[in-house]
Fold:
Amino acid sequence: MKDLALRIENILATSPVWVEARFHRRKSQSVQVQSGLVKQAKSNITSGIGIRCLVDGAWGFSSTSDTSTQAIEKALRQAIDCAKSISQLKKASIKTLPTVGIAQGEFILDGYSELEQMPLEKKLQAVIGAEQNVRRLSKNIQTAVCAYNEQFENKIVITTDGARAISRLARNEIRVSAIAADHGEFAEGQHTVGRTGAWECLFAESNFLEMGEKAAKLAVDLLSAPKIPGGLSTLILSPAMVGLLSHEAIGHTVEADFVLSGSVAQGKIGTQVASPLITLCDSGIVKEQAHAGGDLLVDDEGIATQNTTIIKEGILNSYLHNRESAAAFGVAPTGNARAWLYQDEPLIRMRNTYILPGHQTLQEIIESTADGYLVDCPLGGQADSTGEFMFGAQKVMRIEKGKITKLFRGATISGQAFSVLNSVDAVSREFHLDLGAGYCGKGQPAKVDAGGPYIRCRAIIGGVQS
Structure:
């Protein structure tokens, strides 16, 4: 890696314009077992270099899987030619990029070597055992699926204005699913976890068998659960649901490229957008939880990541920036430029997005809730640039007079994200990032994580209208 970095640096030294070179090597491995059969066991390696340059405010980009000096020099010429052609047609106001936070050195996250040295066969045997255990837990379990994925990332980012970052990390994830059936009724329970680090990082809260037991129990319990009546209600959202809300309905609206396109967050810096109990962050590293699924020390523009406070005690404090948007807003970049593969250009993307914990316990919040629902196990959903959202939830429990009384089948929750956050009147001290097995989509995938505490709010819960 160091020899390649030096060679890239020497090639870029000949460029008459600003250039960014990004080498990326990814090794991916995955296994999947369903109903006792190994459905998938594969390994893949992708590597190459992306070259991006800036000429009179216009971007040019070229990539190659060939890392020879001749191939890199050719990609550089092509990127410069593209930028010059575009600059003649499209004049831009941004001529230079801010250099605040430029990273130099090696950026290594723990767990890479340990995970790489662990045989894939050992991981496969663990997946096989977990899937077998799920099917044995109840006669109602008809199908079980267990999958494991891992990615080993090696990157070099060098720019002509001083960035020289070599990074290495490993991400892994587990998904366990159980489908139960009884008298024509079907229900599914899932448990997922995703981390950045070694194999053991996946099992900080539950071991493999316990994950399967949770998925199976939920599937069986949901078989007899009634459907929920709909309407505006008091909801206690779990950390996983808080993460989905924070990422999908808030996080995307504060990505600076979306802000420039007219998202609901445009022009709201310094204004109240949430309850004073809410502080929302997006971080490369989360001090409240080790090995989060979106951990990152340096972004794909060679900017050191940081803890960006998006909302501080209810006040919109910052957008998420790459170097270009930071120049447009006259602020420092936040280290949010990310590219999926070497042939992709970096986009503004989240890392770990979460609400900070409060001071109450979950039990105290439940006991002070006269009538409402505890909502958990997100099933995805959708949100738009206005902050309007609709999310699915697999597990919903009724709260009556401060006690959990009944389990309901899954439902949807909907509303306007900032209005929902303005209604928050309780935030738990319990904290968890719970979406590390997910992928964010925005033209290209990105590994992220999200979560937070339990929060009590008002939103519409959808089910059978009463």
Q: What stands out?
A: The two ends are 63 Å apart (CA to CA).
